[in-house]
Amino acid sequence: MRTLVRWILPLLLAANGLFMLLAPGQWYPAVPGVTETGPLNVHFVRDIGATYLASAVGLAWWAARRPGGAAAVIPVAVFLGLHMLVHVFDALSGHHPGGDILRDFVGVYVPALIVIWIAWRGLAARET
Q1: CA 29, chain centre distance (Å)
Q2: Phi and psi for 4 in degrees, rounded to 5?
Q3: How far apart are CA 73 and CA 63, in angstroms?
C-alpha cells in the first residue's frame, strides 16, 4: 500500500502537467474555478504545466528511492508550498472569485502539505 501511495501524487501531478502542456485550451475550462481567474493565456498555462511535470519527475525520483531523492523533493515542496500560499492569500484577500475551500484543500493544500512533510522528513533524516 505504501508503494502505491508513493506513486499516486507524482502520477496526478504528471497527468495535470501533461494536460496543461498538450491541451491548455481544454484544461482551462475543465478545472473548476480557473475560468473565473481571468482569460486563458496558453503560454502561461503551458509554463505552469511544465512546472507540474518537473515536480512529478522530482517526486518520482524520490518514490523510486534513487540517490539524492530527498533533495529532489525540495524544489517540489517549494513550488507546491508557494502555490498553496498564493491560494491562501487569494482566498483571504477576496481575489479568488468562486474559490471553493474544499476543492483547494484537496487539490492544492493537501498535496503541498504532503510534499512539504516528505521534504522535511528527508532533511531531518540527513541531519541525524
Answers
A1: 18
A2: -60, -45
A3: 10
Domain tally for the chain?
1
- CA nearest 45: which of 59, 55, 31, 56? 31
Strand, coil or helix: 99 = coil
Per-residue pLDDT of the chain (128 residues; tens, 9 = 90+): 567 678 999 999 999 999 999 999 999 999 988 888 889 999 999 999 999 999 999 999 998 988 777 888 999 999 999 999 998 888 888 776 555 677 788 889 999 999 999 999 887 776 55
Q: Show the domain range for 22.
A: 2-127
Q: Do the beta carbons of residue 66 and residue 109 sit within 8 Å? A: no
CA distance 27 to 16: 8
Helix locations, 64-109, DSSP H: 69-93, 101-104
Using a 10 angstrom Cβ sphere, with 0-12 exposed, 13-18 middle and 19 or more buried, the burial of residue 62 is: buried
Q: State pTM to two decimals.
A: 0.86
Distance CA 112, CA 47 (A): 19
